[in-house]
């Protein structure tokens, strides 16, 4: 698969977690693709720079003043509402965001993540990630399983500065889906065509396999 196919596979799987009436914040990168796979008026997308009711926008309808927190053009759904950034962060910190979907640089086997700083490099910065980890009711990570040089991004311990002391709830990659339960990583699902051997080979972190095969046997 090429890069776009991998990202869309991950985003499509993350979209399956959005069920029922919910307010969802999408982080930069793969998370922004999740909206493409949602056709449910009960899912309301939120951006921390001050819009509830984010929607896709066609090139001919782009408003340069209407962007998300990653400065990408967005549209407004029917009934969308605007507010200032302070109110938006008040929504996050007040636990009014049901689900946050974040990209990461690294995740560890207890569910801690690093997604805001690389020592010695300038990157965009933390944005609302710290607040979302504290305030969102559920946090889902979407990421490629390995870095560009083939190293695992799911580690025993993060080597970059962590974003928060709160663990995420779920990690979705192009190889597998993990849940964090009682401080341990559980592999609950393999992506199509992926073997457990491949997941183990490309994952530095320790994890428990909860994946079953025909006959109810665990992998």
Give an account of the 3D structure.
- With 219 residues, this protein is an alpha/beta fold.
- It has a single domain (3-209), classed as Glutaconate Coenzyme A-transferase, CATH 3.40.1080.
- 16% of the residues lie in helices and 26% in strands.
- The strands form two sheets. Strands 4-3-2-1-5-8-10-11-12-13 form a ten-stranded mixed sheet. A three-stranded mixed sheet has the order 7-6-9, with no helix packed on it.
- Helix 2 (85-93) packs parallel to helix 3 (129-135).
- The longest helix has 13 residues, at 3-15.
- The radius of gyration is 17 Å and the shape is globular.
- The two termini are 25 Å apart.
- The relative contact order is 0.14.
How many helices does DSSP assign?
4
- Which strands sit side by side, in order, in the main sheet? 4-3-2-1-5-8-10-11-12-13
Which word captures the global form?
globular
CATH topology: Glutaconate Coenzyme A-transferase
Oligomer type: single chain
The helix/strand series, from N terminus to C terminus, equals HEEEEHEEEHEEEEEHE
* Beta content: 25-35%
SS-derived structural category? alpha/beta
How helix-rich are the residues, as a percent range?
10-25%
Pick out the low-confidence regions: none
């Amino acid at each position: 698969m090429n890069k776009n196919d991998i990202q869309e596979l991950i985003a499509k799987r993350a979209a399956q977690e959005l069920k029922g009436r919910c307010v969802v914040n999408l982080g930069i990168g793969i998370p922004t693709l999740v909206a493409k796979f949602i056709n449910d008026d009960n899912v309301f997308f939120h951006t921390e720079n001050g819009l509830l009711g984010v929607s896709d926008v066609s090139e001919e309808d782009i408003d340069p003043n209407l962007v998300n927190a990653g400065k990408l053009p967005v549209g407004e759904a029917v009934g969308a509402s605007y507010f200032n950034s302070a109110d938006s962060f008040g929504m996050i910190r007040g636990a009014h965001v049901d689900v946050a979907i974040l990209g990461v640089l690294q995740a560890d086997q207890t569910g801690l993540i690093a997604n805001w700083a690389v020592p010695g490099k300038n990157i965009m910065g933390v944005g609302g990630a710290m607040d979302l980890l504290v305030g969102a009711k559920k946090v889902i990570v979407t990421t490629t399983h390995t870095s560009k040089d083939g190293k695992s991004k799911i580690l025993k311990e993060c080597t970059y500065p962590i974003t928060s002391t709160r663990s995420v709830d779920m990690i979705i990659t192009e190889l597998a889906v993990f849940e964090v339960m009682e401080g341990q990583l559980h592999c609950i699902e393999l992506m199509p065509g992926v073997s457990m051997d491949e997941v183990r080979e490309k994952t530095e972190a320790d994890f428990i396999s909860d994946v079953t095969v025909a006959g109810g046997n665990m992998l």
